[in-house]
TrEMBL record, chain A:
Pathway: Protein modification; protein glycosylation. It is found in: Endoplasmic reticulum membrane. It comes from the Eukaryota. Subunit of the oligosaccharyl transferase (OST) complex that catalyzes the initial transfer of a defined glycan (Glc(3)Man(9)GlcNAc(2) in eukaryotes) from the lipid carrier dolichol-pyrophosphate to an asparagine residue within an Asn-X-Ser/Thr consensus motif in nascent polypeptide chains, the first step in protein N-glycosylation. N-glycosylation occurs cotranslationally and the complex associates with the Sec61 complex at the channel-forming translocon complex that mediates protein translocation across the endoplasmic reticulum (ER). All subunits are required for a maximal enzyme activity. This is Dolichyl-diphosphooligosaccharide--protein glycosyltransferase subunit OST2. Keywords: Endoplasmic reticulum, Membrane, Transmembrane, Transmembrane helix. InterPro entries: DAD/Ost2. Belongs to the DAD/OST2 family.
From TrEMBL, chain B:
GO terms for biological process: post-translational protein modification; protein N-linked glycosylation via asparagine. It is a multi-pass membrane protein. Its cofactor is Mn(2+); Mg(2+). One of its GO terms (molecular function) is dolichyl-diphosphooligosaccharide-protein glycotransferase activity. It comes from the Eukaryota. The chain crosses the membrane at residues 12-34, 78-98, 110-130, 136-153, 165-181, 187-210, 231-251, 263-281, 293-319, 355-374, 381-399. The keyword Repeat does not apply. This is Dolichyl-diphosphooligosaccharide--protein glycosyltransferase subunit STT3. Residues 572-622 form the STT3/PglB/AglB core domain. Catalytic subunit of the oligosaccharyl transferase (OST) complex that catalyzes the initial transfer of a defined glycan (Glc(3)Man(9)GlcNAc(2) in eukaryotes) from the lipid carrier dolichol-pyrophosphate to an asparagine residue within an Asn-X-Ser/Thr consensus motif in nascent polypeptide chains, the first step in protein N-glycosylation. N-glycosylation occurs cotranslationally and the complex associates with the Sec61 complex at the channel-forming translocon complex that mediates protein translocation across the endoplasmic reticulum (ER). It comes from Mortierella hygrophila.
């Protein structure tokens, strides 16, 4: 248990030290989205899924936002630049926007 | 010819070849139109056609909310929520676009030509897919193969207006986009994959194949230790967006979150998230600490996941597999539990001959192509290997799934074929490319080397200067210490390290000619199969008479036309479910059951009405307000797909629901035979189906000579009598017979008595007249 504690603390310090600011911004967005998803899930467990489509739309919206933000984070991370030779950060952002437009169009349709 | 100009030629040639392939693919599907006319085929297409007409006439909103009260009387059917609307929307869109540009094309022609047009697009997407795997020449071969392969033509001839017509294009194109997404790691291609997946979901129930194959690919890559950020980006984009989009189709609804068929996708999605997170953490801390963290994380996730799964499966949130899917794993399942699935011939296991019949030489090139994929084994080759393994299995289980196998067979056969061509044609290309440097290298190297190689090439008889020079270049690179020569010949030598060049013209010619001969045979076989087996509309039959002239049998349309013109608008016509869609589409009458087999009980009720005696079945008919009964009878012209031959299925399905009224064993003679002649059992002879089929049949032939040509049975001279039905219409070749259900007797008598009474009077009158 103690090992885990020290590992976690070293992880935290390394993260704060080594991560560029733009990635931290994306990370905070992802944490926010994650929390929204968890709140929705807890609500569903307590109150039931009744308008099922509304719940699914909301929940999948958070999952998709999270995943798309993760895509953006991976593609704009300078460490990964060699893996994505054709994707510039601007292109990654454009992809992010395009995906979000499609997702939220479907979400709005699904909310009912 | 220099390499530069040859690439220019290739740039012009490739689109030309692709266009020619598309033209061939389209025109080889037009046999039925040339022979018969532009008409919708078979059964299911008639429903698609009818709904498309509705869509074009009443608009999308009305189509979406359409409640069809003319089918499944008295239940009706919510059409908007129980169809895959992809094909109808596609053809309505094409129709409206053409009309916008003032091309007044009839919707029927759009429907008839939809599948051939999409086959051209399928060939193009096969080109794209194979190009990602090997190169564009293999791509062209794949396009040509898929364009004419009978396995695909069987479901996409002109007039075969069915979901598969566009679904195979979508399948191949979605797979292309997926491979492209994995290769580039672009979220944009992931999005496109999801969008085309959505189109596929809207078009065909076979979308489940994609839903499972793509996650399987991702999972396999994960197991092979090939996780990459590209995989994460492409898969998570596809899965998140694709799942959401697929739920927009009402027929699919919440299934992606409920049924087991879709769970694999979500499971791999979750796994990938965890893996990606672990990878992220690994980047920040030293390995030892990472290991402790990982151990803690794995334990936590395992506890949570097992806890969650237990709760979900106990509370029944995740539904078990549906019957159709069980029958994919256990081929005997359907036969025992669901006769309605087993009774459809396209759900039967495939005979091995049909693999050869549908794919010809591709079937033996297919394993070679898969082997070559193993040799390369990049991410996209893993996909093709998985696809071929699973599609082969499913094609073996169910005949109609041959359709999903055909694209991968074409792709891997094209890879094999083009590798063969590369091997046997390569030297000449290599000579062309490296003539100049090779000669230069040869000039600088020792003359003895040239002598040795020329004597070598003498053995072939026909030697060319270029060839000798090429050989010399290779030898020079190996032996000479001259650095310049090495540099010149390096490219040639490195390509030769991999493959053995084949220099001898005769061995090359032998293989190339043989391969070309195979191609000719393949094209010939495909055309033969297409014209002979897959181009019959099945609502119009053609047969050859003894003098060789063609006879068109158009009884179906004759009967449906009669129904359309001579019955009340709300007349209810009962028939076996096979003809439901055609009756609704062509005769515009209300049907009890149709090809949408969603309600087994209702079908069993119809089966009961057909297989019980007149008294019992009259009650069923009255209960369901039936005005007419329609049956198919092939005994006169020898049409084997008639209702007497399907009768056993009706009995089986009816017995499943009404075991007290219908017993299968009562229809078999004591010796276990299924007979219709003198030996027929009492139950058989009293069943409504038997009576309707053979009513007045004996009169057609004179005394005692009536022969049923389908079952080769000599019928009794005294045919059955009918009292609750009266004959309304029988077509020219007796193929379709329509009976009217009598009203209750006005004097309150039993219908049997009143019929007997009427007959007695008729006899009296006629005997009086004679006097």
């Amino acid at each position: 248990m103690n090992d885990i504690k020290t590992a976690a603390s070293s992880l935290l310090t390394a993260y704060i030290k080594d991560t560029p600011k733009s990635l931290k911004l994306i990370d905070s967005y992802m944490v926010y989205v994650l929390l929204t998803g968890i709140i929705q899930f807890v609500y569903v467990v307590i109150a039931g899924t009744f308008p099922n489509n509304a719940f699914l739309a909301g929940f999948i919206s958070t999952v998709a936002s999270f995943v798309l933000a993760a895509n953006l984070r991976i593609q704009t991370n300078p460490k990964n630049a060699s893996q994505f030779p054709t994707t510039s950060p601007e292109r990654a952002f454009a992809d992010f926007l395009a995906c979000n437009v499609v997702v939220h169009f479907a979400v709005a349709n699904f909310l009912g | 010819m220099s390499t530069e100009s040859s690439s220019t030629v290739a740039r012009v040639l490739k689109p030309t070849i692709l266009i020619l392939i598309a033209i061939v693919a389209i025109s080889s599907r037009l046999f039925s139109i040339i022979r018969f006319e532009s008409v919708i085929h078979e059964f299911d297409p008639w429903f698609n056609y009818r709904t498309t007409q509705h869509l074009v006439k009443n608009g999308f909103y009305d189509f979406w909310n359409w409640f069809d009260e003319k089918s499944w009387y008295p239940l009706g059917r919510v059409v908007g929520g129980t169809v895959y609307p992809g094909i109808m929307v596609t053809s309505a869109l094409i129709h409206n676009v053409l009309h916008f540009f003032n091309f007044p094309v009839d919707i029927r022609n759009v429907c008839v030509f939809l599948a051939p047009m999409f086959s051209g697009l399928t060939a193009f997407s096969a080109y794209l897919l194979t190009k990602e795997l090997k190169d564009s020449s293999a791509g062209l071969l794949a396009a040509a193969f898929l364009g004419v392969a009978p396995g695909y033509i069987s479901r996409s001839v002109a007039g075969s207006y069915d979901n598969e017509g566009i679904a195979i294009f979508l399948l191949v194109f979605t797979f292309y986009l997926w491979i492209k997404a994995v290769k580039t790691g672009s979220a944009f291609f992931g999005l496109l994959t999801a969008l085309f997946y959505f189109y596929m979901v809207s078009a065909w129930g076979g979308y489940v194949f994609i839903t499972n194959l793509v996650p399987l690919h991702a999972f396999t890559l994960l197991l092979m230790g090939r996780y990459s950020n590209r995989l994460y980006v492409s898969y998570s984009t596809f899965c998140a967006v694709g799942t959401l989009l697929s739920m927009q189709i009402p027929f699919v609804g919440f299934q992606p979150t409920r049924t087991s068929e879709h769970m694999a996708a979500l499971g791999v999605f979750g796994l990938l998230q965890l893996y990606a997170f672990a990878e992220l953490v690994r980047g920040y801390i030293p390995p030892k600490q990472f290991r402790t963290l990982l151990r803690g994380g794995v334990v936590a996730v395992a506890v949570i996941a097992s806890f969650g799964l237990t709760i979900l499966s106990f509370s029944g949130v995740i539904a078990p597999f549906t019957g159709r899917f069980y029958s994919l794993y256990d081929t005997g399942y359907a036969k025992i539990h669901i006769p309605i699935i087993a009774s459809v011939s396209e759900h039967q296991p495939t005979a091995w001959t049909s693999f050869f019949f549908d794919l010809q030489m591709l079937i033996f090139l297919f394993p070679a192509g898969v082997y070559l994929c193993f040799k390369e084994l990049k991410d996209e080759h893993v996909f093709i290997i998985l696809y071929s393994v699973f599609a082969s299995y499913f094609a073996g289980v169910m005949v109609r799934l041959m359709l999903t196998l055909t694209p991968v067979v074409c792709v891997s056969a094209a890879i094999a074929y083009s590798t063969l061509l590369d091997t046997y044609l390569e030297t000449s290309e290599h000579v062309l490319a490296s003539t100049k440097p090779a000669i230069a290298a040869a000039a600088t190297s020792a003359p003895t080397v040239i002598e040795a190689t020329t004597s070598d090439s003498k053995a072939t008889g026909k030697k060319t200067a270029a060839k000798a020079a090429a050989a010399a270049a290779a030898a020079a690179a190996a032996k000479s210490t001259d650095a310049e020569a090495k540099a010149h010949a390096k490219s040639a030598a490195s390509s030769e390290k991999k493959r053995f060049p084949i220099f001898n013209l005769d061995s090359r010619l032998l293989v190339i000619l043989q391969l070309t001969w195979f191609l000719f045979m393949f094209a010939w076989h495909c055309t033969y199969v297409t014209s002979g087996s897959y181009s019959s509309p099945s609502i119009v039959l053609a047969s050859r008479q003894q003098d060789g002239s063609q006879m068109i049998i158009d009884d179906f349309r004759e009967a449906y036309y009669w129904l359309r013109k001579n019955t009340k608008e709300d007349a209810k016509v009962m028939s076996w479910w096979d003809y439901g869609y055609q009756m609704a589409g062509m005769a515009n009458v209300t049907t009890l059951v149709d090809n949408n087999t969603w309600n087994n009980t209702h079908i069993a009720t119809v089966g009961k009405a057909m297989s019980t005696s007149e008294e019992v079945s009259y009650k069923v008919l009255r209960h369901h307000d039936v005005d007419y009964v329609l049956i198919l009878f092939g005994g006169v012209i020898g049409y084997s797909g008639d209702d007497i031959n399907k009768f056993l299925w009706m009995i089986r399905i009816a017995e499943g629901v009404y075991p007290n009224d219908v017993k299968e064993t009562n229809f078999f003679t004591p010796r276990g035979e299924y007979k219709v002649d003198h030996d027929a059992t009492k139950t058989m002879r009293e069943s409504l189906m038997y009576k309707m089929s053979y009513y007045r049949f004996a009169e057609l032939y004179g005394s005692g000579n009536a022969v049923d040509h389908v079952r080769n049975a000599r019928m009794p001279a005294e045919g059955p009598t009918l009292s609750v039905l009266e004959e309304a219409y029988t077509t020219e070749n007796w193929l379709v017979r329509i009976y009217k259900v009598k009203d209750l007797d006005i004097l309150g008598r039993d219908l049997k008595d009143s019929t007997a009474f009427d007959k007695g009077r008729v006899r009296k009158v006629s005997s009086l007249k004679k006097k």
